[in-house]
Amino acid sequence: MAPSKAPDSSRRSDRSRRAIHDAALALIAEAGYGRTTIEGIAARAGVGKQTIYRWWPSKAAVLLEAFTDLAERAAEAAGEPRGLPDTGDLAADLKRVLRATVDELNDPVFEGPTRALTAEGIVDPELGAQFAEKLLAPQVQLYVTRLRAAQEAGQLRADIDPRVAVELLIAPLTHRWLLRTLPLTHAYADSVVDHALCGLLADR
């Protein structure tokens, strides 16, 4: 008789971790951040509460990792390349990316966790710093790289700071999304690009 193989603890841990991620995201979407608990996540994932506390110190930490994993999986599924598109048409490239951002912010799968992490990051500086480091900073750097390439190609003014210029593009979308005062649409994203580039483009 062939000897039986010992259970693969790493695979079991991966399955449990993914189940916890999915449970946390589902509960946030269904009940909101305030009503989501570690006990609820554990019950939904089919694991013991102690398993969660062994890997994460809080539900906010669970959500941060779950959302990071979700974003990575979504990018892989969409076959998105690293970096912003560079077709030579800066306005078109930026509009394409900001439209995709609008779609993501309006998608309930992403909206709930993003709002929860944003709100919790305000009252929890450590979580806010992790949120910025793991999710926001890498995305901002992609914009900076694309704008710097346009600057080197002579398309943008030489005296602008690409990091500040990024904020002219993404801050209006974030502001409108946070306040919910007006619809967040593709047309608005296109308008933001057009207005920002009025002050950024080099003289022709």
TrEMBL record:
Protein name per its UniProtKB record: AcrR family transcriptional regulator
Lineage of producing organism: Bacteria, Bacillati, Actinomycetota, Actinomycetes, Kitasatosporales
Entries under Gene3D superfamilies matching the protein: Homeodomain-like (1.10.10.60), Tetracycline Repressor, domain 2 (1.10.357.10)
Domain HTH tetR-type intervals: 14-74
DNA-binding region: 37-56
Domain of life: Bacteria
Cited InterPro entries: Homeodomain-like_sf, HTH-type_TetR-like_transc_reg, HTH_TetR, Tet_transcr_reg_TetR-rel_C_sf, TetR_C
GO MF assignments: DNA-binding transcription factor activity; transcription cis-regulatory region binding
Keywords of the record: DNA-binding, Transcription, Transcription regulation
Coiled coil: none
SUPFAM superfamilies: Homeodomain-like, Tetracyclin repressor-like, C-terminal domain
